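Q: My labmate handed me this sequence with no annotations at all. I'd like to see what the chain might look like in three dimensions before we decide whether it's worth expressing. Could you predict it?
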Amino acid sequence: MRIIAGKHRGRALAAPEGRGVRPTSDRAREALFDILAHGRFADRPVFEEARVLDAFAGTGAFGLEALSRGAAQASFIEKDRTALAALRANITALGEEQRAAVLPGDALHPPKAGAPAALAFLDPPYAEDIAAPALAALAASGWLAPNALAVVELAAKRKFEPPAGFTLLEERRYGAARLVFLRFAPAP
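A: Here is what I predict for the chain of 188 residues:
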């Protein structure tokens, strides 16, 4: 697993052994960032100068890729101790300590956000049906700015119903994974 593009292009990312973390394939991550870069959801790359949230962060590949490509800041929420160690090692190896905030904890019960993110990545465990409740919890805790784009990775065949305040924009399938793109519009 490596950073695909940007200032850290080609740099390897550490991943814990075992089944506790299921890193997104380089191919799916590259396709995702190509979509985010080429104006499909905004008139400029969505991640450019953005505050980014990487929930169920694992190795931090989504948030670190965004930082490599020009995001201003990334917050990472992860509860697994082994994954947290790999995440912190990856942040240090890339020299991104100043622009990265690691929050040990559960995305289903997140702490209050210091500032909302314009772009959020959620990669919950495939076997658990927790993407929608996590989105709702993150929104309620102030993690998502109005009009934020949320990208959720799910098992390709898993059913998903967006929670209130989220509009489904598009879905893409990459092997065993499905990427769901949502727009957040909080109720007035």
